[in-house]
Amino acid sequence: MAAAAALALSLPAAHAGLFDDEEARKAILDLRARIQANDETASKAIAELVATNTQLVQQVATLQRSLLELNNQLEVLRGEVAKLRGDGEQLLRDVATLQQGQKDANQNFDDRLRKLEPQKVALDGREFVASSDERQLYDASIAAIRNGDFDSAAKGLGDLLERWPTTGYGASARFWLGNAQYGKRDYKGAVGTFRDLVKANPDHPKAPEALLALANSQAEMKDTRSARRTLDELLKSYPDSEAATAGKERLASLK
Fold first, then answer.
1. 95 and 180 share a domain?
2. Where is the domain boundary, 117, 147, 167?
3. Rounded CA gap, 220 and 232, in Å?
């Protein structure tokens, strides 16, 4: 009886121990399930985060490449703008040079045209209009006389009087032609030239000097009589001229 009673008392306790182990096991399994679920959730979150981070890295890399390409394009554009600016400045300089060249060309053309056009000339107290060819030939002949080249001077002045018989240079050209002939010792030619000047232009300022030069040419030809008549003409026609003063001295030397 005592043994039976002891057994009866021990059964609830054993049953209680078994219940506690089952609950603990369930609790452990549940905890494991929750931990696993949390691990899976965390892994998924980490995977998503990694994926997002990778995407962001890729986007950043793409953005960096885009920025680099944009920067390269900007540098190219800057270079092109600088080149265009340089080309524009060069173009402006070229245009300015062309404009100045055109202006100079026009000015040169106008100058040449003015030189070719007949112009008013003042010579020996007289004014007249002469062509550029007349002016150039007369000036070259006078320069030749100054240089002692009487042959060239005589030829140039002779050509001038032949080509332009009515030239305004006529009296002055004859005066210097006579001097050139005298310089080259063509006294006979000088006599004729000086006589033509006085006959055609008795009121010309060079007429008194022409008569004096004529008398000197006649004296060089040993024609003293003609020289004295010429000096008498000078003293009678132009008594107040400087040539008349020199003529008096020359006349005295011929006596």
1. no
2. 117
3. 17
